[in-house]
Design brief:
Blueprint (H helix, E strand, L loop, with lengths): L1 E2 L2 H14 L4 H20 L5 E6 L3 H15 L3 E7 L7 H12 L5 E3 L15 E5 L11 H12 L3 E5 L22 E5 L17 E5 L5 H6 L4 E4 L1 H7 L14 E5 L6 H13 L4 E6 L4 H7 L4 E4 L17 E4 L7 H13 L4 E3 L1 H9 L12 E2 L3 H8 L5 H15 L2 E4 L5 E4 L2 E5 L11 H15 L3 H23 L6 H6 L1 H7 L11 E2 L2
Parallel strand pairs: 2-3, 2-5, 3-4, 5-6, 6-7, 7-8, 9-18, 10-11, 10-13, 11-12, 13-14, 14-15, 15-16
Antiparallel strand pairs: 1-9, 8-19, 16-17, 17-18
The structure holds ligand NAX and potassium ion.
Amino acid sequence: MNIFSLEQIREADRLTILNQNISSDELMERAGARVFEWLHGRLQGNAVRIHVFCGVGNNGGDGLVIARLLMESEYNVKVYIVDFSEKRSPDFLLNLDRIKNMKHWPEHFNGDKGEELPDIKREDIIVDAIFGVGLNRAPSGWVGKLMEHINATGAFVLSVDMPSGLFMNTVPEKGSPVIQAAHTLAFQSPKLVFFLPGTGIYTSSWEILDIDLDKEYLRNIQPEAVFIEKSEALSLYIPRKKFSHKGTYGHALFIGGSYGKIGAVYLSAKACLTSGAGLVTTYMPRCGYSILQTALPEAMVLTDANEEHISTIAFDLEPKVIGIGIGLGKHRATVDAFKAFLQKNSTPLVIDADALNILSENPELVQRVPAKSVLTPHPKELERLIGTWKDDMEKLEKGKAFAKEHDLVLVVKGAHTIVIYNEKLYVNSTGNPGMATGGSGDVLTGMITGLISQGYTPVNAAVFGVYLHGKAGDIAVSNTGYEALTAGGIIDYTGDAFLDLFARPEHQEAGQEAG
Ligand SMILES: NC(=O)C1=CN([C@@H]2O[C@H](COP(=O)(O)OP(=O)(O)OC[C@H]3O[C@@H](n4cnc5c(N)ncnc54)[C@H](O)[C@@H]3O)[C@@H](O)[C@H]2O)[C@@H](O)CC1
Ligand SMILES: [K+]
């Protein structure tokens, strides 16, 4: 599913009106009607009190359409106008007249009358149509107070298009008011901010409503980001061939491990085999030999001369891809070995853990990383690589610039992991908090390496690997619960994650969990 930018939504809006030969107010009616149908389908005429808060722009206009349609179906509706500006949108004004024609007189808030805050009960419903995509500065004092009052009621808050107070392309300053939505109904496409840690917290779940914006235009543009769900993942899948052999699926090598951290290599190697690599070899210090040969007889083991850490990186094979850094440690000899390895290596890499830390401590080494290699940093490792950021948006911008400059695939880990390559963002839909457990990252590195080994391009391997990893975790938790999920458990359910790609058609987006 595509995620569009503010400019793209505005243009789609304009072209829809032009090409479908409708007025802007007809488009607003369509948008409001979709929200009304959503509510009506669930409430079925229930007498619950519905408080509709409308701003004075087009989001507020949508709110007025929703309120009118609810009233026409005899719902118990109260409308409030949050008069935050003298510049009211024409379609807002048109719909305000229509509400007044129904003999309903909205309560106006404009800040200088010291209005009493409305009395709203926990069991009521609030429709938040104060600000939509047009917010361009923090709401002023009294508007913020009203928004905080809404948040404090404990009522179910349904946000129209986006929770009021969120911006499309920046993150609200600390203390800036934002509506805490129970659910958000977004028009046409989800917003990027639903997936970022600092802003995704403002809606517990979200759904999109199709308002039939200009399909031709939306199909032909490069979206701001792509949301990777089953259908996108399936489109990346490469079927196995009947007349194939282990050589067809590549030889993957893992370089890593140190005394006490052999398990990391085991997890990567096993995840790599489980995701379909033809052959796997691990290169590790001598102390890892028996452990790996015993725990994972399917893998081959090469050892360093040193017992406890890697001191030289030398091997006599030609792997298709190398996963490096898992459990590696940062012993001086290991750092030197890694530097020497980068000088002569041209095989694509999947770089994780201590190899990333060595890179960030020696930034000149980044130039030595082969183009299109995959980097899988968690937030701290990312910060060491690209520097600090003021908010999630800046993090993505810096990530894009870094990936572009070095022609690398960057996997920005989080609740919604985002893969960055060639200025494109791929936002993952799968995964859960049970996966925040030691070794989960080693499994991901193993999966991505395994996919590259089989012939997936590095960017596709990263996007597909992140999806599969999360999906395996999601299937696993349905059996283990969050707490008991371990990294090994994610590997155990990788097969189910593959099978799930071909299971019944994807359920409609309804009720997605965000954040
Ligand atoms: N193409 C679409 O997707 C459609 C959008 N519609 C609705 O239109 C909304 C966007 O409407 P608008 O562009 O009018 O913007 P909003 O209604 O989101 O915001 C209101 C206006 O207030 C001003 N403003 C921004 N921040 C302010 C602040 N802190 N204090 C005071 N004034 C402020 C801006 O001029 C802004 O345009 C969407 O979110 C959606 O709900 C729908 O009506 C139909 C179609
Ligand atoms: K809103």
